[in-house]
């Protein structure tokens, strides 16, 4: 996943001013991240990327991978895409929650989305 897509997915409908307030990252930096094309990755600092991740309670390594600082292998992460929970059927979400809360249950099953 490219940085711009990652940022858009993480912030959802939050306004840039709210993202800046939540993360401590300057609003002009956020604007630059969101206005760049996917092919032309914006300049970014590891400090800003880490602050963004922390502000949204996302793993810093996940953000570093999205920013291109690390590969998923270097971060020790599986190369799985981030799941948009709004696109998952409610019954599948409930089944996954039950599986995670009751890992020894015979009805538990493994979904294809990350743990």
Question: Key terms for this structure?
Answer:
single chain; 115 residues; mainly alpha; 434 Repressor (Amino-terminal Domain); 2 domains; 7 helices; 52% helix; 0% strand
Could you give a quick summary of the protein structure above?
Helices cover 52% and strands 0% of the residues. It has 115 residues and is mainly alpha-helical.
Would you kindly provide a written description of the structure presented here, covering whatever features stand out?
With 115 residues, the chain is mainly α. The protein has two domains: 3-75, 434 Repressor (Amino-terminal Domain), CATH 1.10.260; 83-115, no CATH class. Helix content is 52%, strand content 0%. The chain has seven helices and no strands. α4 packs across α5 (60-67). The mean pLDDT is 83.
């Amino acid at each position: 996943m490219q940085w711009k897509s990652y940022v858009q997915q993480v912030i959802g409908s939050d306004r840039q001013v709210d993202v800046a307030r939540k993360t401590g990252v300057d609003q002009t930096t956020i604007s630059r991240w969101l206005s760049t094309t996917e092919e032309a990755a914006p300049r970014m600092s590891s400090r800003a990327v880490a602050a963004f991740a922390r502000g949204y309670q996302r793993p810093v390594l996940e953000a570093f991978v999205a920013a291109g600082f690390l590969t998923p292998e270097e971060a020790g992460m599986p190369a799985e895409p981030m799941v948009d929970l709004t696109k998952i059927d409610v019954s599948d979400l409930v089944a996954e929650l039950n599986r995670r809360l009751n890992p020894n249950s015979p009805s538990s099953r493994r979904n294809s989305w990350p743990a």
